Amino acid sequence: MSWYPWLNQPYRQLISQHQSGRGHHALLIQAIEGMGDAELVWGLSRWLMCQQPDDMKSCGHCHSCQLMQAGTHPDWYRLEPEKGKSTLGIDAIRIVTEKLYHFAQQGGAKVVWLPDAGTLTEAAANALLKTLEEPPGNCWFFLSSRDSARLLPTLRSRCMTLQLVPPDEALSVQWLARQTSQPQTALQTALRLSGGAPAAAAQLLQPEAWQRRQQLCDSLNQHAGQQLLDLLPVLNSDDAPQRIGWLLSLLVDALKWRQNAVQWLSNCDQQPLVQKLAQLFTPLALDQGIRDWLQCREQLLHVAAVNRELLLTDQLLRWQMQHHT
Length: 325
Description:
Layout: H1 8-19, E1 26-30, H2 37-49, H3 63-70, E2 76-78, H4 90-100, E3 110-114, H5 122-133, E4 139-145, H6 153-157, E5 160-163, H7 169-177, H8 184-193, H9 198-204, H10 207-223, H11 232-235, H12 240-258, H13 271-280, H14 283-302, H15 308-321
Helix pairs in contact: 1-2, 4-5, 7-8, 7-9, 8-9, 12-13, 12-14, 14-15
Organism: Candidatus Pantoea multigeneris
Domain DNA polymerase III delta subunit C-terminal: 208-320
InterPro entries: DNA_pol3_clamp-load_cplx_C, DNA_pol_HolB, DNA_pol_III_delta_C, DNA_Rep/Repair_Clamp_Loader, HolB_lid-gammaproteobact, P-loop_NTPase
């Protein structure tokens, strides 16, 4: 698994707490996509599982380290929804809880990781809460969350919270420059479109993903101010929420352009398109368009069995009707 330099400080901080006997049994990691919460949990888990750690590092040689490296450690549990399901039910929590109260099979620590605590059903969250209130000895829980507001307040209150904050943009650009040969404006754009998360920016800069964004920009450049319904083919895909996110960033940038805040643009590499949108739409139309597209994306993400093509068509027609300057 990869390791990122911006994880060094939180890793050392957390390991120091464990070394001094102050490690919290439940850690809630708040992080946006691409900040490396999975890598951090993996590194912490390896140290906790290691039978003879070398200061802040796992030894890499003991039986536990070998099992962790092979992904077969019997006392390391990763809990996530079954394939095809969007929620994690109470049965999964009960099964793991039962195992936790028995002795660790390797005689050491036991670790439970929830890559997305937001997938817990209310019943599952309450069952986990009971375990967190009276945790078994030498048992550690890691909960990752993209939006901790969706978690039960009582569950949040039982955890120590760690927020993985994006690194300074200049440092992130330097790191990205070592991963790809893309120009500086592309690196800056990818970072800003990824909320400052460097690993997510690196993913976006992969040729296929970057080409999809370019395709959206080209199509918008061609059809903005004309038949906006012609944008349907480029929006109607499995990654529609991400494409709408790119569209939203361009509309927000158009508002910034109108306010002479050009230095704060997210789409640094698309300034002519941003300027075009700023000239085509009034501030009121841009503001309304942003609200409507946000609502459209929310429906795509959270409404079960929504008709994507119909929803996008309806939104594009509504957008077409909004007044242009």
